[in-house]
Amino acid sequence: MNALAATNRNFRHASRILGLDSKLEKSLLIPFREIKVECTIPKDDGSLATYVGFRVQHDNARGPMKGGIRYHPEVDPDEVNALAQLMTWKTAVVDIPYGGAKGGIGCTPKDLSMSELERLTRVFTQKIHDLIGTHTDVPAPDMGTNAQTMAWILDEYSKFHGHSPAVVTGKPIALGGSLGREAATGRGVVFATEALLAQHGKSIKGLTFVIQGFGNVGSWVARLIGERGGKIIAVSDVTGAVKNQNGLDIVDLLRHKEETGCLTNFSGGDHMDPNELLTHECDVLIPCALGGVLNKENAADVKAKFIIEAANHPTDPEADEILSKKGVVILPDIYANAGGVTVSYFEWVQNIQGFMWEEEKVNYELQKYMTKAFHNIKAMCQSHNCSLRMGAFTLGVKRVARATTLRGWEA
Ligand SMILES: NC(=O)C1=CN([C@@H]2O[C@H](COP(=O)(O)OP(=O)(O)OC[C@H]3O[C@@H](n4cnc5c(N)ncnc54)[C@H](OP(=O)(O)O)[C@@H]3O)[C@@H](O)[C@H]2O)C=CC1
Ligand SMILES: O=C(O)CCC(=O)C(=O)O
């Protein structure tokens, strides 16, 4: 099932549980605005290359629209649409004053030089600059983008609108970025995991973990779980997978990835078929890469007891059903990976205040927001006798529906 069909299905399920009026349901489902732009750049060899860029602004009832920009060859309008909608529910789940948006460019960032990436980012920004802004739509990093990408957007946007640090988050500290933002999604995933495990009378120490993806989110999740005594027994990236039943040394693995650009040939572990990673025996599986990786083909073979959705929509609805029947507990993306956007909110607040927080304050506030959201989700699960995913969806959708109704539709 494609990402948009899956997201719409989850939304409609939540809407039914909440008993939303069908007109309100339709208004919440249809995006506020969908943008598609052509981005042509000269390559370093003088030839021209054309890419397609998207920004979907899903909903702004609770505040400026917010969400990352992804550079990946599989970026397509339906997926961006789904990811934008997920951002709307996510910002509502953690109760930060934003709506939802997402963007992307269909490209393979590893095949582009730094100067080509810079030109592409600047052209994309030129095409959308009048539709984003500090109080309208605030981009951030996602797969294939990083703090440098945000710095280029900030610079290009500021040529049209004057110096505007709060137009993007996840930017370099030297340009007004927040301490703790780089690690925030991973740290939030770990706080969320701790909250869930505590409820099951468990803790990270001594449990076995398998992690798919070793980029921003996956590498921080691995590092922080390792620091808490969790045993990470298998990890993958796009180049392959590595395993060690006694636990991988994550600091060594990070050094190896930094030096060689891949996980393969790591001396502290054995090569593993990446296709076996998701069904490897473990206590906790944490997908930190692409969407739709858990599906009807592999769900029945998953052996983990807990799945923490650090990636966006890693589990399609068919897999969700199979896994739930097997008793696997799934912590849904719109809560599990909300630490990134939560610290993006702190960054935006700091930019608007012109005052920088200590990293300890950022991490302390992040834990507070993540823990509070977990308890609010649990309360929804109890009220509606539903899964954690539906607990999170009903919490998010209810808050957005309430804001929309209060604002009204008078033209
Ligand atoms: N960055 C953020 O703040 C947030 C990110 N997310 C979500 O987390 C996920 C990861 O994002 P992020 O870490 O930022 O992205 P990155 O681009 O930093 O990292 C992505 C990682 O996934 C790996 N990867 C790509 N394809 C595969 C594959 N087929 N099998 C295994 N690994 C693969 C990449 O491998 P390689 O290293 O070899 O390229 C890389 O390690 C995405 O779903 C994103 O939407 C959610 C909330 C916030
Ligand atoms: O930090 C942000 O604004 C958005 C992060 C994001 O894209 C996500 O949570 O999926």
Automatic annotation (TrEMBL):
Transmembrane segments: none annotated. Gene3D superfamilies: Leucine Dehydrogenase, chain A, domain 1, NAD(P)-binding Rossmann-like Domain. CDD domains: NAD_bind_1_Glu_DH (cd01076). Residues 178-408 form the Glutamate/phenylalanine/leucine/valine/L-tryptophan dehydrogenase C-terminal domain. It catalyses: L-glutamate + NAD(+) + H2O = 2-oxoglutarate + NH4(+) + NADH + H(+); L-glutamate + NADP(+) + H2O = 2-oxoglutarate + NH4(+) + NADPH + H(+). SMART domains: ELFV_dehydrog (SM00839). Keywords: NAD, Oxidoreductase. Belongs to the Glu/Leu/Phe/Val dehydrogenases family. This is Glutamate dehydrogenase. It comes from Vitis vinifera.
